[in-house]
Amino acid sequence: MDMVNVQINGSWHKFPKGTRMIEACRQVEALVPHYCYHPKLTSPGNCRMCLVEMGMPPRPTPGQEVEKDESGFAKIGWMPRPVIACANTVADGMGIRTEGKLSEECRRGVMEFLLINHPLDCPICDQAGECRLQEYSVEHGKGGSDFREEKVKKPKNVDIGPRIRLDDERCIMCSRCIRFCSEIVDDPVLGFTERGSFTTLTVHPGKRLENNYSLNTVDICPVGALTSNDFRFQQRVWFLKETNTICTQCGRGCNMTVSSRQETIYRQTPRENNEVNSTWMCDRGRLDFHYVNSEFRLTQPMIKVDGRHQAATWKQAVERIAEGLKSVPADQVAIIASARMTNEELYLLKSLVASVKTPHVDVVPRMREPDNYLRAADMNPNSNGVRKVLGIEPGARLEGIVADIIGGKIRVVLSLGENLLKIGLEKAHLEKLEFLASSHVLANAVAELSDVVLAGATYAEKRGSMINVTGRLQRLAKAIESPGDAREDWEILRDLVLAVSGSNGLHSVDDVFKRLAAEVDIFAGLTLTRIGELGVQVMETGETIPLLEREKDRIAKGLIVG
User: Fold this and answer.
1) pLDDT at residue number 392
2) pLDDT at res. 59
3) What residue ranges of the chain have pLDDT lower than 70?
4) Residue 3: how many CB atoms within 10 A of its CB?
5) Read out DSSP for 68-91?
6) Which residues form a coiled coil (predicted)?
7) Nearest Cα to 226, choosing from 216, 214, 238, 218?
C-alpha cells in the first residue's frame, strides 16, 4: 500500500494514498465538522461545513533548492481559498489546517447560512440532545445573525411513510436520506424540488418511504427533519440509558443499542459492525420491542390446582416440573425448546436432557424468504448454537415428536419459549397429556393449558451469547430488569437440572459459559468478556451478507470510504 506524508495542524503523519482528507483528520483526532458526508455513502460535497485550509509545496524553479521545514519535509505553500475535506484525497507533502482564521470564518459563514431559515423549535424538537446543527451552532456559530428578512416557510409534520414524519423547515439539504434510499436499499423515493432557499425535500408523486429500512434515514439525519413515529415525543435522549447488544429478530444478529429508562425500552438503533450489519438495521428488528413491556407479561410462576392457576414460588414450580418429568419412562417425555435461546441456556438444556434421558428433544425452525440486504432466511437468532451446543439439527425430530404426542406415545411435555399450537398440535392433543409445563414471556393459550407455567425473560433482560447465520459468536447484553418475579432462562434451567439430578455449582451466566468453553471446541479459550462488543468468528457457514458484499464493491471502486 502506497503511503504518503501529510501535515495536519503542524504535525506530520503517514496515510494510505487515496485517503479522504476528512478521514485522515479523523484518524489523528483533528475532527472536521460535517453534515452531508457519511462514510457509507457517496460524497456530494454540498453542505460546505467541512471546509479546511490546504497547501502543497511550491514547485521550485530550475536550479533552486527545495526549502525544507524543521521536520525535513518540503515547506508548504498555503492556498488562499479553502477546500472541502469530504471529497478530496490526501497527497504526498500536503498540508491541512482544520484550525485557524480561514477555516473558522468559513464555518461561521456556513452555519449562518444554514440557520437563516431554520425554525427556532429546539425545545420541542425530538432531535434535541443529539442534533449536529445544535452542537455546531455552539461550537462554530457566530452567536448572532445579520439576517433580518422573513424566514421561508416550508411543510411541517408531513406523513411520508408509515414509520416516518418529515419537517421540511428543519432540513439542511444534506441529502443523506436521498443517497441512502437510492444507494443502499434501491428505493429512490426521496428527492429535492424547487431551488435556492425554497429547496424542499419530498417523496416522488405517488410514492411513499415505506421500505423495511426506512428508519435508517432517521438515524443518519443530522437534524430533526426526519423523525420516527414510534419514538416521536416519547423521551428526551439525555434521560436514556444505552446498552450495546444484538437484535434477535432473525439469524443475522444485527448489532444495536437499546435505549431505556426506568426498565422501559423506548427505542433500538443500529451500531456499527462491518462484519455483520455495517451501520444499518431493518425496521422490523428495531421495532420488535414493544411486547417486552406488555401488560400481558407473565411475572411469576403458576401451578394449576383444581383446574385453575395459582401463584407459586419458584421452588414449588421447579419441584413440580421435576416430579412430572420423572413420573413416566424417559421415552415418554419430550422437551421442545427454542432456537431463540442463548448458548448458555442450550448448554443447560443439554444437561437437563441428559438427566431426564429422553431422546425426544428439538427446537422449532423458522425459515422465511430473505431480502437482498440484511434479513436472513433463518428467523431464529441462534440456530447455529443449537447445532454446536445441543448437537442437533433444528427441526429434524420435531415432526416425529408431534406425531408421538398426537398418538399418545409421549405423555409428558416441557415447552421452553415456544407456542405448541403453532407446530401442528391442537388444544385437544395438549389436554390429553398427563403433564404439560411451559415457559413463556407472554400469557397465551399454551400457558393456559399448562399444569405449570414459568415466567421467562426477554432478549433485553438477560446476558448470554449467540452464533449468527454467518458463524459469528456475539454477546447479548442485559438492558433492563425482568418484571415481577420473572427469571432469566438459564436460571430456570439450572434449577431444573438441580431438581432432577443434583447440584451443579453454577452461580452466574459466566460460570455456564466457562463450562461451555471447556466442552465445546469452538468456544475454547473464550469468555463472555473476550467475545467483545463486535463478536468473534467461530465457524464458517458459507453464507454471505448481500448488503456487505455490495459495500465492499463500492469501497473497492472508491465510491465510499466504508
Assistant:
1) 97
2) 85
3) 503
4) 12
5) B-TTSSBPPEEPSS-EETTT-B--
6) none
7) 218
Are 179 and 306 within one domain? no
User: pLDDT tens across 489-535, in order?
Assistant: 999 999 999 999 886 778 899 999 999 999 999 999 999 999 999 99
Q: What is the 3-state secondary structure (H, E, C) of 234-300?
A: CCCHHHCEEEEEECCCCCCCCEEEEEEECCEEEEEEECCECCCCECCCCHHHHCCCHHHHCCCECCC
382 and 421 inside one domain: yes
Instruction: Verify that 440 and 372 share a domain, yes or no.
Output: yes
The CA radius of gyration of the chain, in Å to the nearest whole number, is: 29
What DSSP line would sit under 185-234, residue for residue? SS---EEEES-GGG-EEEEPTT----STTTTHHHHH-SSSSEEETTTTTT
CA 379, CA 32: separation in Å to the nearest integer? Answer: 41
Question: Same structural domain for residues 153 and 273?
Answer: yes
- The CATH number assigned to the domain holding 175 equals 3.30.70.20
Give a yes or no: residue 46 inside a domain: yes
Instruction: Tell me the C-alpha to C-alpha distance, in Å, between residue 194 and each of 48, 312, 385.
Output: 20, 67, 54
> Is residue 388 included in any domain, yes or no?
yes
Residue listed under C-alpha cell 533548492: 65
Q: What is the pLDDT of residue 109?
A: 93
Number of domains in the chain: 3
Tell whether 285 and 333 lie within a shared domain.
no
Largest CA distance in the chain: 106
Burial class of residue 71 in the structure, from the number of CB atoms within 10 Å of its CB (0-12 exposed, 13-18 middle, 19+ buried): exposed
Determine the pLDDT at residue 222. Answer: 96
Nearest to 325 by CA among 422, 189, 433: 433
Q: What is the pTM of this model?
A: 0.94
Rounding to the nearest 10 degrees, give the CA dihedral for residues 517, 520, 523, 528.
-40
Q: Are 155 and 261 members of one domain?
A: yes
| Final residue of a structural domain among 82, 99, 116 | 99
Output the pLDDT for position 504.
72
Question: Quick one: 454 and 532 in the same domain?
Answer: yes
Same domain, yes or no: 374 and 277: no
- 547 inside domain: no
Which value, to the nearest 10 degrees, does the dihedral of the CA atoms of residues 194, 195, 198, 202 take?
40
Establish if 552 belongs to a structural domain. no
Q: Give the per-residue pLDDT at 144.
A: 77
User: What domain range is 487 assigned to?
Assistant: 302-537
Backbone torsion region of residue 253, taken as left when φ is above 0, otherwise alpha when ψ lies between -120 and 50, otherwise beta? left
Q: Which positions ≥6 away from 456 have C-beta within 8 Å?
A: 298, 416, 417, 439, 440, 441, 486, 487, 488, 489, 492
Instruction: Show which of 293, 310, 329 is a domain's final residue.
Output: 293
Residues 6+ apart with CB under 8 A from 285: 247, 249, 250, 254, 256, 268
